[in-house]
Design goal:
Length: 1291
C-alpha cells in the first residue's frame, strides 16, 4: 500500500509536470511522505530485560518500525479496557499484550483513587496510553538512551516525552480536587509525592515519571516547553471535570470537582454585639433605668417627707383609735370584725404551728433520754447505708445525664462500633538550640527546627521504645503494650499503632541513620525522607535508592498534622514539637481487659513522671489522667477543708455560750452543746448519704464538698436562733423549764420550719434538672436540710434542756460531774444583740440612711443585670486540675502545638437501605451521588471550617467500596474454585474479578451483589496493588447484621478544627448537630425511625453548655417559685411577705451573676450547684427577718423592721455570717483552682451578698413596702399575753 502510494504520488505525478515545477513538487511529496511515514513510527515494542533500578520490572524493547496489530483476544480486551481511544481498524499499536498487562498493573493505585472522577481518570489514562501504545508514538516520544539486551535487541533506558502545557494543565485541573476518602485528604497528596497544596501540573507529571519513585523502570523525561524540530507534543482531547464522557459517564461530583459545586458557600455573618449609640445596649439601658429610678424614688421620698411634716398618720388608723396609741392592754375586741378571712386563717395556722412546736418542745425536754436514744438509733440505721456508698469519679457519669442526647448517642456508638480508643499522648519539645539548615542537591536551603535534629530524634526514639517495652502487673499477670494496643491489620500484621513521626523511619535507629552520600554530597538521608513523607505519608517508597517506606509499621499512614506541632501552614520542617500518640483498645463491658489497660497506664504515668532528659521537655496525658488527678485533688484538699470546718466548729462552740463573768466561764460556756449541734449537722448529712446509698444513687464529689457547707449554714443558724432566744428570755413565774423551752420553740420553730421547708422543697424541685451534678446535689441537699431540721427540734432541744439543767445546777461545761457553789442564775442580753438593738438597727432605719441603702442596692442590681449576659459559659478543663498537676502542662501544650481537633463520626443509624441506588446516592460522594448527600454536605461544611468547625472531608467507606469493587481494579477478586476472597497481592490464575468488564459490571453493585462483596472489602488489607482495602480504615465503621446479609449502623469520619475554649467545643457540637439534622432531612427516612447524628469523644461533657442558660433559669426559677409558695403558706398566707422574700433572694442571685462577671467565674454545672445552694442559704438570711416583721405588733413599718432586725439580725449574723466567714477564708489556701474559684470566691460572695441583703437591704425594704400588720395576729397576741407577766416583759 505504501509502495503503491509512493509510486503514484511520486513518479506518475512527475511525468505530468515539466521543469522546475516538477522538481519542486517531487521534493514536497517526499517531505509529506516522510512526515506521514514518521507518524506511523514506534519507539518500542514488547518487553526485554529487567530494570536496574526496579529489579522486578521490565524494560521495553527498542523498535522503530510501524505499529502492529494486537495478536490475541486478551490484548484486544486490555486495549479496549485501558485505552479505548486507540481501538480502531486492526488495533495497530506500539505495544504488545504484555505491555498492556504491565500498564494495567502499574495504574492500579491511581485507578483506585482517580476513577471516582471519570474526566480526571480519562485524561490520566490518555497520558499513559499515548506514551505506551499510541501508533503516533514517535510524534511526541523520543528514545535517548539504550542498553543491550541480546544480540538482536536493545533495551530502551531513557525517553523524552513531549507534552503540551495545555494538556498538562487540563489533566491537573480535572484531578486537583479529587478526594481520597479513607485518608481525609486529596488524592494528589498520595500521587504527587508532596502535599496537594504544593502539587502543580508539571511536578505531578514529573513525579509520576521519576525513575526514583520506585515504580518507573526507566527514566522518562517529560518536556513541556523545549520541543525540538520534527516533534509534535502530545495534545490529545481532554475533558473538564464538569463534563460527561463519550461513554456516558457523568460529570464528577462536587466533592471531586469544585467547578461542579456552583457558588462557594458563604458562612452567615456573626451577630454583632447589641449596641445603642455605639455603647453596649444593656449597659446603656440599665444606666438610664437606674437614673430614672433614682429621680422617681428620691422625688417620692422627698414628697413623703414633706407630707409627714404636715400630717402625721399611722398605718393602724383603721384598727386603732387615732388619739390612743396602740397597746395590748385593751380588751382586744374593738377591731375583731376588721380582720380579713386570710388574716384570720393565717393567724390560726400560725397558732397551730405554735401550739404544735410548743407541745413537742416540752415533750423533748421532759423525756430527753428517750428522744436522744431514738434519734441515735434512727441516725445509725440511716447512716448504715454508707456501707453501700458509691462515689462517682467518672467524668461521663458526673457531667452527662444517662437520658441526655449526647449520652444516648455515645451509648449507641459504643454498642455498634465499640468505644472510642483510649489515648496516651506525649508532646515533646526541647530547650536546646539545635536548629540547622539543610542544603539539598537542588533547590534552596531548608530550615529545620531544633526538635528535628537527628541526635534529639534518636533520644525521642529511645524514649518511645522504652514506653512500648513497659510491663505492668495485673492480678499476677504481666501486661505489655502489645497486649492492649490497637493493631488494625491483625492478625496479618500485629504491630501496634503508634502515631509518631518516627514511624516514618519504621521506629528504627538504623533506618533513621540511612543515607546515600559520597565525599562531597549527601544525596539522601533522614532530611529528604522526612520531607518526602510529610508530603506523601501513604507512600510505600520514598523514591530514593534506599526505597524506605513512609507508611507506619502498623500498616497505616502517620499524617504530619497528627505527629507534629508548632508550625504554620504546611511548613512541617519548622515544627517545634513532636506529638506521639499510643492508642489503646477500650473496652465497654469487659472489666478484666479494662483493668489491664488501667494497670499499664499507671505504669506509663509513673515512668514518664520519673523520666529525665535535660534535652527534652515532655508533657503527657493518659486516658485515666483526669480522673486520677480529680481524685488526687480531692485528697489534697482534705486538709484545707478540715481546717475550714474546724475553724467553724470552734467558733460555734465558743459563740453559743453567753459568758456573764470570768468566774462563771466554765458554767456559762456551751462547748459541749456546740459540739452536739455540729454532730447533729453532720448526722443529718450522713443520714442523707446513707438513705440514698440504700437506693443505689451514687455520690459525686460536688455533694461531698458542698452539702456539709450548706447544711452547716442552715443548721448553725437555727441553733443560734434557739439558744440565743432562750438566753434573752425570762422564765415566767411558776413556769417550768420544759414549758419555757416549749414556749420558745413555739416562737422560733415556725421560722425555722419556714426556712428549712422552703429550702427542702426548692432543692427537691431542683432535682428535676437534667444535669447529673445538679440533680444529685439537689436530692442529697434537700433531704439533709430536712433531717437536720427534724434533729434540731427534737434531739438538739433535748440536749439544750439537759445543758440548761447543768448550767442551773452550777456545773461546769464538759466536766459536768463537778458541782460548783450555788449562784444566782439570770439571763441577759448579749453584746451582739445589744449592738443590733441599740446601735445598728436604729442607724440603718434612719430616715436619711434608708434612701441611700435603696440607691446603693438598686445600683448593684442594675449593674448585675447589665452584665448578666456577659458571664462566660463553660469550664476551662485546666481549672479542674490541682495547681501542681502534670496535666496542666499538657493542656497548655495541647492548645499551643496541636494542629487538628478531635475526630467526629457521622453515624447513620440502623435502618438505611444501602442496597438500592437511591439509598446509596443519599450518602455517597462520587459520580451520580445526590448533591445534598451526606458526604457532600460534610464536604461543603469543611469548606467553612471556621464556622462549622469541620476541618476535613469525611472518610467514606461507601465511596471506597465502589472504587474497590470496580472490574477495572485488581482489588476485588475471588478464587474461582472456592469463592473465597483473593487479595490483590496473590498471584494465582484461579483468581478472577468479582464483576465482569461489561457496562452493567461497571455500574455500582445493588441488592445481594452489594452485600456479597462488602465483607470481602472490610477484610481486605491495603497493599501496593490495592490501596483501597477496607480492613484498616473501615473494619469498625460498618456494622453488618443478619449473618452479613444486611448493613446496620455505619459511620463516616472527619475531624474537628482546633478547639481551645469551652465556647469552641460547644459551637462545634452545635454546628455538627445542625449539619446532621440537615442530612437526616435530606436523606428522607420517611416513616422510618432512624436518623444521622454526630459523635465525638467530648460531646458528653459539653452538651450541658447548649442548655446551661435554660437549665440555670429553670432551676433558679423553680427554686424561687417553691420558696414563694412555701413562704406564702408558712407566713400565714401573707402573700406580700412571700413576694418580698422572693424578690430579695432574686436580687441576691442576680448580684451573684455580677460578681461572677467581675471575678471571672464562668457558668457551668459547678457554679450552677452553687447558685442553687445560694438560693437556699439566702432563705436563711431573709425568711427569719421577714417572719419576725410579720409577727411584730409595733406601730409602724419602720418600728416593726427595727424590732425584727434587732431580734433576728444578731442570730443571723452570728449564726451564718461569722460562722462561714472564717471557714471560707481558709479555702483561699487550697491548691485546687476549682476550689479557689468556685468555692472560695462563690461562697464568700454568697455569704457577703446574703448578709448585706438580709441585714441591710431587706429591713429597709420592709420599712418602705412591708405588709401591713395582721389584725388577727395583733388580737391573738393581746389575748395571749394580756394581764400576764409576759406583757410587762415585752412592752
Amino acid at each position: 500500500m505504501r509502495v503503491t502510494l509512493e509510486k503514484s504520488s511520486g513518479v506518475g505525478g512527475a511525468m505530468l509536470l515539466p521543469g522546475r515545477k516538477q522538481l519542486f513538487c517531487l521534493l514536497w511529496a517526499i517531505i509529506l511522505l516522510s512526515q506521514w511515514v514518521h507518524g506511523q513510527h514506534c519507539i518500542w515494542y514488547g518487553e526485554c530485560g529487567n530494570s536496574t533500578k526496579v529489579q522486578e520490572k521490565k524494560l521495553n524493547c527498542n523498535y522503530t518500525g510501524p505499529p502492529k496489530p494486537l495478536p490475541d483476544i486478551e490484548g484486544q480486551d486490555l486495549l479496549q479496557e485501558l485505552c479505548p481511544g486507540l481501538v480502531y481498524g486492526e488495533n495497530e499499536v506500539c505495544c504488545d499484550t504484555q505491555q498492556l498487562r504491565t500498564l494495567k498493573n502499574n495504574i492500579q493505585i491511581p485507578l483506585q483513587y482517580l476513577s471516582r472522577c471519570p474526566a480526571c481518570f480519562f485524561n490520566f489514562m490518555t497520558l499513559f496510553c499515548e506514551l505506551t501504545c499510541s501508533p503516533r508514538q514517535s510524534d511526541f516520544v523520543n528514545s535517548t538512551q539504550f542498553s543491550p539486551f541480546n544480540n538482536s535487541q536493545t533495551n530502551v533506558e531513557e525517553v523524552s516525552y513531549y507534552i503540551t502545557q495545555t494538556f498538562a494543565n487540563a489533566m491537573y485541573n480535572a484531578c486537583k480536587d479529587v478526594q481520597a476518602p479513607s485518608s481525609n485528604v486529596k488524592a494528589l497528596s498520595l500521587l504527587c509525592g508532596r502535599d496537594a497544596s504544593e502539587c502543580t501540573p508539571n511536578n505531578w507529571i514529573s513525579y509520576m515519571f521519576d525513575i526514583n519513585n520506585g515504580q518507573v523502570p526507566f527514566a522518562i523525561d517529560p518536556d513541556f516547553t523545549n520541543v525540538p524540530p520534527g516533534i509534535t507534543p502530545m495534545n490529545n482531547v481532554t475533558f473538564n471535570c464538569t463534563q460527561s464522557l463519550d461513554d456516558g459517564s457523568g460529570p464528577c461530583s462536587c466533592q471531586d470537582c469544585s467547578g461542579a459545586c456552583g457558588p462557594t458557600p458563604v458562612a452567615p455573618p456573626f451577630l454583632p454585639p447589641w449596641t445603642i449609640l455605639g455603647m453596649d445596649a444593656m449597659t446603656l439601658i440599665m444606666w438610664c433605668s437606674y437614673i430614672a429610678f433614682l429621680i422617681i424614688f428620691f422625688g417620692a421620698v422627698l414628697g413623703a417627707w414633706c407630707y409627714r411634716r404636715r400630717m402625721v398618720t399611722s398605718e393602724y388608723a383603721p384598727i386603732l383609735d387615732s388619739n390612743q396609741p396602740h397597746s395590748l392592754n385593751s380588751d382586744g375586741t374593738d377591731f375583731v370584725g376588721d380582720a380579713t378571712c386570710c388574716e384570720t386563717m393565717g393567724e390560726r395556722f400560725e397558732n397551730c404551728l405554735r401550739v404544735l412546736f410548743s407541745t413537742w418542745g416540752s415533750l423533748c425536754v421532759r423525756h430527753p433520754l428517750t428522744v436522744i436514744l431514738t434519734s441515735v438509733v434512727l441516725v445509725s440505721i440511716c447512716s448504715a447505708g454508707l456501707s453501700y456508698l458509691r462515689i462517682t469519679t467518672n467524668p461521663v457519669e458526673l457531667w452527662s445525664s444517662p437520658n441526655s442526647r449526647a449520652r444516648q448517642e455515645k451509648d449507641y456508638f459504643d454498642q455498634h462500633f465499640g468505644p472510642f480508643f483510649r489515648t496516651e499522648q506525649l508532646i515533646i519539645t526541647t530547650s536546646v538550640n539545635a536548629s540547622f539548615t539543610f542544603s539539598p542537591i537542588s533547590g534552596p536551603d531548608i530550615y529545620f527546627s531544633s526538635i528535628l535534629n537527628i541526635s534529639l530524634l534518636h533520644q525521642v526514639l529511645d524514649l518511645q521504645t522504652e514506653i512500648t517495652n513497659l510491663a505492668a502487673e495485673y492480678k499476677g499477670e504481666t501486661v505489655t503494650f502489645k497486649d492492649i494496643c490497637i493493631s488494625p491489620l491483625a492478625p496479618y500484621n500485629d504491630n501496634c499503632t503508634i502515631l509518631s513521626m518516627l514511624n516514618y523511619f519504621q521506629n528504627s535507629h538504623e533506618v533513621l541513620n540511612h543515607n546515600v552520600s559520597d565525599e562531597f554530597y549527601t544525596y539522601f538521608d533522614y532530611h529528604t525522607h522526612f520531607l518526602y513523607c510529610v508530603s506523601s505519608p501513604t507512600a510505600l517508597d520514598d523514591t530514593s535508592p534506599l526505597h524506605d517506606p513512609c507508611m507506619g509499621t502498623f500498616g497505616g499512614p502517620v499524617f504530619p498534622w497528627l505527629a507534629l506541632g508548632g508550625y504554620e501552614g504546611t511548613a512541617y520542617n519548622n515544627a517545634t514539637a513532636l506529638v506521639i500518640t499510643f492508642p489503646v483498645t477500650n473496652y465497654l463491658n469487659d472489666t478484666e481487659k479494662l483493668g489491664k489497660a488501667l494497670a499499664w497506664e499507671k505504669v506509663f504515668i509513673e515512668f514518664v513522671k520519673n523520666y529525665s532528659n535535660p534535652n527534652l521537655t515532655i508533657s503527657f496525658s493518659t486516658e485515666r489522667s483526669i480522673e486520677d488527678e480529680i481524685d488526687r485533688e480531692s485528697n489534697s484538699d482534705v486538709t484545707t477543708i478540715v481546717i475550714s470546718y474546724v475553724i467553724m466548729f470552734v467558733y460555734i462552740s465558743l459563740a453559743l455560750g453567753h459568758i456573764n463573768s470570768f468566774r462563771t466561764l466554765l458554767v456559762d460556756s456551751k462547748i459541749s452543746l456546740g459540739i452536739a449541734g455540729i454532730l447533729i449537722v453532720l448526722s443529718s448529712v450522713a443520714c442523707s448519704l446513707g438513705i440514698f446509698s440504700y437506693f443505689g444513687i451514687p455520690l459525686t464529689l460536688i455533694v461531698i464538698e458542698v452539702i456539709p457547707f450548706l447544711v452547716l449554714a442552715v443548721g448553725v443558724d437555727n441553733i443560734f436562733i434557739i439558744v440565743q432566744t432562750y438566753q434573752r428570755d425570762e422564765r415566767m413565774p411558776e413556769e417550768e423549764l420544759h414549758q419555757q423551752i416549749g414556749r420558745i420553740l413555739g416562737e422560733v420553730a415556725p421560722s425555722m420550719f419556714l426556712s428549712s421547708f422552703s429550702e427542702t422543697v426548692a432543692f427537691f424541685l431542683g432535682a428535676l434538672s437534667s444535669m447529673p451534678a445538679v440533680r444529685t446535689f439537689s436530692l442529697f441537699a434537700g433531704l439533709a436540710v430536712f433531717i437536720d431540721f427534724l434533729l434540731q427540734i427534737s434531739c438538739f432541744v433535748s440536749l439544750l434542756g439537759l445543758d440548761i439543767k447543768r448550767q442551773e445546777s452550777n456545773r461546769p461545761d464538759i466536766l459536768c460531774c463537778v458541782k460548783l457553789s450555788d449562784r444566782q442564775q439570770e439571763n441577759s442580753e448579749g453584746c451582739l444583740f445589744l449592738f443590733f438593738k441599740k446601735i445598728y438597727a436604729p442607724f440603718i432605719l434612719k430616715d436619711w440612711v434608708r434612701p441611700l441603702v435603696v440607691a446603693v442596692f438598686v445600683g448593684m442590681l442594675s449593674f448585675s443585670i447589665a452584665v448578666v449576659n456577659k458571664v462566660e459559659i463553660g469550664l476551662d478543663q485546666r481549672l479542674s486540675m490541682p495547681d501542681d498537676s502534670y496535666v496542666l502542662d499538657y493542656f497548655g501544650n495541647l492548645s499551643e502545638y496541636l494542629h487538628t481537633g478531635a475526630p467526629v463520626y457521622f453515624v447513620v443509624e440502623d435502618g438505611h437501605d444501602y442496597k438500592t441506588s437511591e439509598g446509596q446516592n443519599a450518602l455517597c460522594g462520587g459520580v451520580g451521588c445526590n448533591s445534598n448527600s451526606l458526604v457532600q454536605q460534610i464536604y461543603t461544611a469543611s469548606l467553612l471550617n471556621n464556622y462549622t468547625k469541620i476541618s476535613n472531608v469525611p472518610s467514606s467507606w461507601l465511596d471506597d467500596y465502589f472504587d474497590w469493587v470496580k472490574p477495572q481494579s485488581s482489588c476485588c477478586r475471588y478464587f474461582n474454585n472456592t469463592g473465597a476472597f483473593c487479595n490483590a497481592s496473590v498471584e494465582d490464575k484461579t483468581c478472577v474479578h468479582c464483576r465482569p468488564l461489561t457496562p452493567s459490571g461497571k455500574q455500582r453493585p445493588n441488592g445481594t451483589e452489594f452485600m456479597h462483596f462488602l465483607p470481602m472489602f472490610l477484610s481486605d488489607n491495603p497493599n501496593i496493588k490495592c490501596g483501597k482495602g477496607g480492613h484498616a480504615a473501615y473494619s469498625t465503621a460498618v456494622d453488618l447484621k443478619d449473618d452479613n446479609t444486611d448493613v446496620g449502623a455505619t459511620y463516616f469520619m472527619s475531624y474537628h478544627t482546633i478547639l481551645k475554649t469551652s465556647s469552641d467545643f460547644t459551637d462545634a457540637l452545635k454546628m455538627a448537630r445542625e449539619l446532621t439534622d440537615n442530612i437526616t432531612q435530606a436523606i428522607g427516612p420517611q416513616n422510618k425511625d432512624y436518623s444521622v447524628f454526630p459523635y465525638s469523644i467530648f460531646y458528653v461533657f459539653y452538651e450541658q453548655y447548649l442548655t446551661i442558660v435554660y437549665d440555670t433559669a429553670f432551676n433558679l426559677g423553680v427554686s424561687l417559685a417553691a420558696i414563694f409558695v412555701v413562704s406564702t403558706v408558712l407566713l400565714g398566707f401573707e402573700l406580700w411577705s412571700a413576694v418580698l422574700v422572693s424578690l430579695t433572694i432574686a436580687m441576691i442571685l442576680v448580684n451573684m451573676f455580677g460578681v461572677m462577671w467581675l471575678w471571672d467565674i464562668s457558668l457551668n454545672a459547678v457554679s450552677l450547684v452553687n447558685l442553687v445552694m445560694c438560693c437556699g442559704i439566702s432563705v436563711e438570711f431573709c425568711s427569719h427577718i421577714v417572719r419576725a416583721f410579720s409577727v411584730s405588733t409595733r406601730s409602724s413599718r419602720a418600728k416593726r423592721a427595727e424590732e425584727a432586725l434587732a431580734h433576728m439580725g444578731s442570730s443571723v449574723f452570728s449564726g451564718i455570717t461569722l460562722t462561714k466567714f472564717g471557714g471560707i477564708l481558709i479555702l483561699a489556701l487550697s491548691k485546687s483552682q476549682i476550689f479557689q474559684i468556685f468555692y472560695f470566691r462563690m461562697y464568700l460572695s454568697i455569704v457577703l451578698l446574703g448578709a448585706a441583703h438580709g441585714l441591710i437591704f431587706l429591713p429597709v425594704l420592709l420599712s418602705y413596702a412591708g405588709p401591713s400588720v395582721n389584725k388577727a395576729k395583733v388580737m391573738a397576741a393581746h389575748n395571749r399575753y394580756v394581764n400576764t407577766e409576759r406583757e410587762r416583759l415585752i412592752y
